[in-house]
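Quick one from the shared queue. A colleague (R.T.) flagged Large ribosomal subunit protein uL1 as missing a structural entry in our internal table.

Convert sequence to structure tokens.
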Amino acid sequence: MTKKLSRRMREALAKVDQDKAYEPLEALQLLKETATAKFVETAEAHIRLGIDPKYTDQQLRTTVTFPKGTGQTVRIAVIARGEKVKEAEQAGAEIVGSEELIDEIQKGMMDFDILIATPDMMPKVARLGRMLGPKGLMPSPKGGTVTDDLPTAISDFKGGKQEFRADRTGIVHVMFGKVSFSAEDLLVNLKALQETVDRNRPSGAKGRYWRSIFVSSSMGPSIQVDISGLRDLKMTEAA
């Protein structure tokens, strides 16, 4: 049975030409216009890449720092020991602990958005892989979440740094701001994401790397963005 679209969604869809790839700024203005839910929606990007992540040399997992922030309040948990525990607390981590925190997480405590661990704790954190991996929360050096420099990592993630990865079908899903941001600020963040994806192109990616990019608000319709228009954009134009 086909789900009936709400009047709100029908009106939003009517504003979007499904056969058109919009210029980046126009797409983001349309994203804001079609975000008509009764709460401040998130701006999302969905990027289909020409990669097959089942091969290790075609996997994409990295971090992006959004110059305009994300508009999100990020709760950070840190697994460390000794002096590093105090260091993490002073740097603003909401949850800090050692073996006892690992036990809590193993019992189902997931009251955090990002988990950071010091390298010496990783052998113990490894047993959480089955729980954290599917949720994208497992600390990793590539993601900047395995580090001894806790103050910098905590500051970066609270300031707009975000980890992302391509899913098993080669699609990247990233939240890059709130619809309350100006279209220009959303464009600065989207450009930072595009540059990060290009800079971290997997060595095994052959042929056409970018297949498509769509943006949407969390409750709004998908809007296709012209890939060339985004990649050719200079930061001075986006700033």
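The chain is about 35% helix and 20% strand.
The chain has a mean pLDDT of 92.
Added to the table.
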